[in-house]
Structure formats: structure tokens, C-alpha cells
Write a structure and sequence with these properties.
The structure is a single chain. Helix content is 84%, strand content 0%. The protein starts with 5 loop residues before the first helix and ends with a helix. The protein is mostly helical. Helix 4 packs antiparallel against helix 8. It has 15 helices and no strands. The longest helix is centred in the first third of the chain and has 62 residues.
Length: 451
Amino acid sequence: MVSTNEQGQGERGTEGSAIDRLLRVFGDVRAGEGRDVIFMFLNIFLLLLAYYVLKTVREPLILTAGGAEMKSYAAAAQAAVLLFYVPAYGWLVSRLPRHRLILVVVLFFFGWIQVFFFAGLAGMPFLGFAFYVWVGIFSLTMIAQFWSMANDIYSKPEGDRLFPLIAIGSTLGAPLGAALAERLFSAGVSPWTMMQLAGAILLVHLSLYFTVRRTSRRPTPATAKTAHSGGSNGFALVLQSPYLRLIALLLVLLNIVNTTGEYILGSLVTARAAAAAAATPGLDQGAFIGSFYGNYFFWVNIASVILQAFVVSRVVKYLGMAGALFALPLVAFGAYGLIATSGALLLVRVMKTLENSTDYSMMNTAKQMLWLPTTSEQKFKAKQAIDTFFVRIGDMLSAAVVFVGTTIVSLSPSGFAGINLVFVIASLAVAWALLREYRHMTQEARQKTAA
């Protein structure tokens, strides 16, 4: 547990430093918690800053090489890689203390950035496909690892209060990373140079992990000192628990919806770039697409920051888990209902902005809070399995939808939106069952604590 005494902090919740008092504008921060919240905020901020530079770089690399269809197939290929990656990560978790695990994983991904950098300079074929697969695994692993650590060191009452504030770092880092990438593309900076910039940010992110570990005044949990030596791997832990199975199923359904929506947008953007190139000879389609996505990601994440900073903590406070959990399926239902009536690029962009900003703020916080009642082993092993493999199963199923919709039945963007509505309705039913299980687990945890 991060705090020394939850009850004691409740009694002096209005005291504390200037940082504590400032952060109370955004949420319920109690005396002595502010500095650690800032450190955690900066850590996830830097991670998302680096990720969005890489994410923006990957779009022109994949879209100019194979189009929106190839992008969907690359996302599905990640699931096959994760079949081997997730057990390997679980093996590391079982053998390394937390700080060494973080060091090994971050340096592993930094090394791969160097591989792609030199491969790009050498002009190796199929690099866009491989890089797309790698970026997806990188983002899911690194973000899941950060939140595994946060779930392991914060108690449930603390997490309920502080996770919405810490998550502001991710929603703020994302638009700044996208804006930085857009500016660099517009200035003619090569994708390979932008990869190295992201790598440098990643090293600063790594150093901050150890800065937090050295300077934090809060006690270090036992799980940070010893290996998670449980015999079950992440997949087995998910299959053994009805609660974890529901989390996995919900994320699969929501990712089918989101990835299919990204295909709709990507196909429209690629067509617009081709039309612009035909009208303007010499136009760089890759730069056109990169600039569009940099601007698109920027506004998605500006909306996410506003929601995260001023809405999420209040929704959690007054509506609890139900408000956070149902927000995204309800928004997606309205968004794809409108897209089903018109597949215009402007409408699709606006609706995807609304969907993704809700996903990156409200749903992202809900996904992290769902892990607070779980065991330490589940937080590190099962969370990696769900946040990587099962999320990418959603991508694989979305790729199947795209394949059928483009090669067999020739669906329009509006037709794909209609299929998405079916998956959204299914996600609402799963979210309802998951909420019931979450309340049951929370009640059991309270009874054990009271006993």
C-alpha cells in the first residue's frame, strides 16, 4: 500500500503542501500524496509522448506501402507474435524484481528502435508492416507495465481517488507527441530521425522510474522486492477467473469496434491523399497522410485531456465504476449510428475523435481501476495477457471483418459502421455482467479487510 495510513490521511485531507492543494482542483488528493502523484504523472506523460511520435511515424510507413487493408492485417499479426511474447514476459515477471523487470523491458524496446532506424536507412522492404506490428506491442506492453506497477503499490481506495489524476499524464503526453510529430513531418524531418527522438524520450522515462524509486517517501511494497513466482502464466490466470474473462471479452469487443472504425477513417484518408496527389503532381502522399494523422491525433488527445482533467474524476466520484465503464459503449453506439447514415470523411473524423477521446480518458481510467481488487500476480501477468494478446485478438477479428467487407460483400464505410453497432450492443451486455462481478469482488475485499 502506498500511503502510511488511509484513515489518518482522511482526517487531515485538507492539509499538505502547495502541490497537494493545487492538485485538489482536479481530484481528491490528501496530505503528502501530491509529490508521488506528480512523479507518476510525469512518468506516464513521457511514455505517451514517445509513443505518439512513434505512432504517428508508423501511419505513413504502413499506409503508403499497403493501404488501409494492410494496416488492418498488420494489427492482426500482432496477436500471433503475442502468443509467444506474453509467456516470455510472464517468465521475466517470475524471475525479476520490479525495478529490474522495468529496466530490462525498456532497454529491450529501445534496442529495437535502433534496429528499425538502421533498417530504414538501408531501405529494407516490408519495414512499414514490421514497424506497425512492433509499435503495437511496444505501446500495449509499456502502458500495461506502468499501470501494473501503479495497481500494485496503490490500495483500492487510493487508486479510486488518484488514478484519474495520474492518467492526465497519458492524455496530455499523447496530444503533445502527436503535435510534435506533425510539426516534424511538416518541417521535412525523416521518420528515422523521429524514431531516435522517441528513443531518447524513452530513456528519460526509464530514468524517472528510478528517480521515483529513490526519492519517494512512501514505503516500498513487498512485491517490488521479490519475484512474482506463481506458477501460472498470464493466459492461465485469465482463463481461471470469471472476472478476468469478462474483462478480456469486453476489451476484445471494444477493440473490434475501434479498429474497424480506424479502418473506415484510414480508407477515407488514403483515398483523399490519392485524389490530392492526382490534382497536385509531386505531392508527397506519405507526408499528406502523416500530417493528417498528426493533426487528428492532436485533437483527439486535446479532447482526452479536457475529459480526463475535469470530467473523469467527477464521474468516478458521483457515478462510480458504472459511469466510467458504460461511457465508451454508449458514445460508440451514437457515433456509429451517425456514421451508418453518412460515410463522409469530416463526419467520420469527428465521430472517431469523440470515440477515441472517451476511450483514452474515461475508459482508460475504468480499465485500470478494474484491476484494483485483483492479486499482485494477476496485475503483472494476467494484465499483460489481456492488455496485449486479448486486445490484439480484437484487431484480428476486426481484420476478418475488413477482409470479408472488402473482398466478398464490398461494404461501404456506412456498412462497416452498421456492423460495428452489433459489436457495441454486445459490449454493453458484457459491461453489465462485468460491473456485477466487480461489485461482488469489491464487497468480498471489504469483508476480508474488515475481518
